[in-house]
Design the sequence.
């Protein structure tokens, strides 16, 4: 058997956990914290492949191995690698307290409604987008994806970062900082986990299913669910197909350009994506913010006119919805297509602008498709009868990048 022992975060470890082991593998601080049996080989974890090769030699010879890890080694830990290499039936896992659980305990918050994301050895944009979108996120950090990098990416967002370092050790520190304060510091190598909190929403409702990603009760919501001006809102039939083509999901970033009422932005946020809404009118900006608040989601609203304002937006979006633009529409679509990692969806009412939008998408290397949407809704008539009331036709065009820029799923 390979005995896998979780250590740290304040949980006591059996002093005899390594008794009888002929090979003990772990981080330097874990190895220094236990007594090694006489004659046992010790491997300090660095590159994983050589350590696993050594473990394989011992396992093949039926010689006992102990692997020391942090917290619960089955939670974003080494158990996955060991089970894939040697089989789960060879593992005797003795979990400790996860660093996430310990960090939330230190600040007195429940964490059944938190999303946990690992940025260790992964593209940190998934963690950043989750922090932008959700009120309670725990980030397992790594080189290049620590508190400073998270703080820099979250400047301007109403968040508090709780940086937990050396949990369970003599030098333990749990500090609350703003994103700007986090970005300005060198945090060293002892950080265990970073909690990102929207403190106004950090104590969420009672849950029956763990995790912060809430499946919305419905989508393509009726226009009556949004404050809008003179019916200037993407109709729910159009919004339904737009959402299907945008494919918003947790960990992704979506732009809603020419947001108007912000109905598409709000719906993408309800599906878990981080969202930036761009709107050129002051009353429109306030309307988007009010609609986001009414639906309990966080949408970053930028006041300005596209395409010029787009250059100042942080981070390249996974998907973009363009719902306005006038004469500038082809230039707006071109600017969005340059930055979009996956797809651009455009809604427009004017037939004359369809060729220019298609050319903008294909010219940026996107495969382009589209449809004319025409629907008729049931409408009551006097005498308890019903007629069909036609809505205005809308062209929906979408471009999908032929060669995606994503680095794979980081969740």
Sequence:
């Amino acid at each position: 058997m390979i005995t896998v022992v979780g250590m740290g975060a304040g949980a006591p470890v059996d002093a005899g956990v390594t008794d009888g082991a002929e090979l003990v593998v772990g981080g330097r601080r874990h190895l220094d914290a236990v007594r090694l049996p006489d004659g046992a080989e010790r491997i300090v974890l660095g590159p994983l492949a050589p350590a696993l090769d050594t473990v394989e030699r011992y396992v093949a010879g039926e010689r006992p191995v102990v692997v020391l890890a942090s917290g619960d080694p089955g939670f974003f830990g080494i158990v996955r690698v060991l089970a894939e290499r040697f089989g789960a039936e060879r593992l005797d896992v003795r979990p400790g307290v996860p660093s996430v659980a310990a960090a939330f305990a230190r600040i007195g918050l429940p964490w059944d409604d938190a999303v946990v994301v690992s940025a260790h050895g992964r593209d940190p944009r998934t963690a950043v987008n989750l922090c932008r979108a959700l009120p309670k996120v725990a980030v397992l950090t790594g080189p290049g994806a620590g508190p400073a990098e998270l703080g820099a990416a979250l400047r301007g967002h109403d968040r508090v970062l709780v940086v937990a370092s050396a949990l369970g050790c003599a030098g333990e520190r749990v500090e609350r900082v703003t994103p700007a304060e986090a970005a300005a510091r060198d945090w060293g190598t002892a950080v265990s986990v970073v909690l990102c909190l929207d403190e106004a929403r950090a104590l969420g409702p009672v849950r029956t299913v763990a995790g912060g990603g809430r499946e919305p009760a419905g989508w393509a919501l009726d226009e009556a669910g949004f404050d809008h001006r003179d019916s200037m809102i993407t109709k729910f039939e159009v919004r339904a197909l737009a959402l299907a083509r945008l494919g918003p999901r947790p960990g992704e970033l979506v732009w809603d350009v020419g947001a108007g009422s912000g109905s598409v932005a709000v719906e993408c946020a309800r599906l878990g994506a981080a969202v930036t809404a761009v709107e050129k009118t002051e009353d429109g900006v306030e309307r988007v913010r009010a609609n986001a608040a009414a639906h309990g989601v966080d949408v970053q609203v930028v006041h300005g006119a596209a395409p010029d304002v787009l250059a100042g937006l942080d981070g390249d979006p996974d998907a973009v919805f363009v719902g306005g633009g006038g004469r500038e529409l082809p230039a707006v679509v071109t600017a969005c297509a340059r930055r979009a990692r996956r797809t651009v969806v455009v809604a427009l009412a004017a037939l004359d602008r369809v060729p220019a939008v298609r050319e903008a998408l294909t010219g940026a290397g996107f495969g382009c498709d589209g449809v004319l949407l025409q629907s008729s809704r049931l409408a009551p008539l006097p005498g308890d009868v019903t007629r069909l009331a036609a809505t205005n036709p809308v062209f929906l065009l979408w471009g999908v990048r032929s060669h995606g820029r994503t680095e794979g799923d980081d969740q």
Q: What stands out?
A: The first strand starts at residue 2 and ends at 7. The two ends are 30 Å apart (CA to CA). Residues 406-411 have pLDDT under 50 and may be disordered.
